[in-house]
Amino acid sequence: MIARNGGRRFGWGLAALGMLLVSTDSLWVRVSGADALDIAFIVGVLSLLLYGAMALRRASASWASLRADTWPLLAIGVLGAISQLTFISAITHTEVPNVVAIVASAPVLAAAFAWVALRERTSPRVTAGIALTVVGIGMVVSTSIGSPNLWGDFLALIAVICFAASTVIWRRHRDMSRLMGLALAALLVVIPTALVADPGGLDAPAWAAILAMGLVCNPLGRLSYSNAPKHAPASEVALFAPVETVAGIVWAAVFLSEYPAAVTLAGAVVVIFGMLYATVLDRRGAAAFGSD
Fold first, then answer.
1. How far apart are alpha carbons 202 and 37 in whole angstroms?
2. DSSP symbols for 126-154
3. C-alpha atoms less than 13 angstroms from C-alpha of 164 in its C-beta half-sphere
4. Rounded distance, CA 228 to CA 14, Å?
5. 5 φψ region: left (φ > 0), alpha (ψ -120 to 50), beta (else)
6. How far is CA 223 from CA 22, 58, 103, 219, 230, in A?
7. What are phi and psi of 69, to 5 degrees?
8. Which of 7, 96, 132, 146 falls between 20 and 30 A from 34, CA-CA?
9. Which residues, including other chains, have CB under 8 Å from residue 2's CB and lie 6 or more apart?
10. Are the C-beta atoms of 140 and 264 separated by less than 8 Å?
11. Average pLDDT of the segment spanning 84-100
12. More confident residue, 118 or 139
């Protein structure tokens, strides 16, 4: 049972901190100035070492999960690897506000995939949220039509689609080892990028930025956010998802002088509102989540 008062506020704090830390990913990628494949390789190696070591500490449970859920875990690994590669590549090919606005659609896309794959009932409210999200993404992408940024927007869309699809698999196979899934995803990033990456050519500032992302901000952020539901209802935790988008846009403006176009900003607002409307603003959905 989820703790009340102080415990719930602690959960809110974890969720906010987690999203705030993860929101710096785009900043670190851009500040490093490194090639996307070099960044993906280094972050993949760091993630593999981290999650692999944690999985080994629970070796019996990890191997049991791998034997019992081989194909779902492989699917998680493939989707996770594609999402990581396309997300990092997107940041190097388009404006940061575009990427974080598109990424904000993940919760609603996951609901859409759950309706298709798991036949979960979708309320008119969720359907409306999905429609709003599609409109918002269209507004964001429209600013890149006819420019090189369109490829980056497309990569960001692929990244969020893969991420949303992976959440449906996790929902379908709730007892799978999360550590094994994350480790497999990291391994499937490292294998192909190892053939082309050249991390030896990176300078000290690039290494500092990549290590800050792969060793500190990203893993601590994901750890904080994933533990938040232990202390607060999942519906309330989901309320903090837009922190990543808002903070990502702020980082880009303050540190990179990348200011979102009016249409991009409006699209981001539509996407965020669509996500909130379909999830935490739905009282029935909130009650269902809160009872977990």
1. 12
2. HHHHHHHHHHHHHHHHHTTTTSTHHHHHH
3. 24
4. 5
5. left
6. 10, 17, 19, 6, 12
7. -125, 45
8. 146
9. 8, 11, 229, 230, 231, 232, 233, 290, 292
10. yes
11. 92
12. 139
Task: For residue range 58-83, list pLDDT tens digits in order.
Answer: 888 888 888 888 899 999 999 999 99
Three-state secondary structure string covering 21-65? HHCCHHHHHHHHCCCHHHHHHHHHHHHHHHHHHHHHHCHHHHHHH
Q: How far is CA 16 from the centre of its chain?
A: 14
Kindly state the greatest CA–CA separation across the chain.
Answer: 54
What is the enclosing helix (H) or strand (E) of 183?
helix 178-193
In sequence order, what are the residues at sequence separation of 6 or more whose Cβ sits closer than 8 angstroms to the Cβ of residue 69? 173, 175, 176, 177
Backbone φ, ψ for residue 70 (5° rounding): -55, -55
Q: How many Cβ atoms are within 10 Å of 74's Cβ, its own excluded?
A: 14
Helices then strands, counting H and E runs in the chain, come out as: 16, 0
Domain boundaries, the chain: 15-290
Compute the average pLDDT of residues 243-265. 89
Kindly report the number of other CB atoms within 10 A of residue 182's CB atom. Answer: 22
Average the pLDDT over 13-17 and give the result. Answer: 87
Nearest alpha carbon to residue 41 among 99, 76, 73, 84: 84
Residue carrying the six token digits 């994350």? 182
Give the span between the Cα atoms of 143 and 265, in whole angstroms. 11
In the block, residue with structure tokens 């990569």: 155
CA distance 277 to 289: 15
Helix or strand (DSSP H, E) at 173: none
CA–CA separation, 238 and 253 (whole Å)? 25
CB 180 within 8 A of CB 55: yes
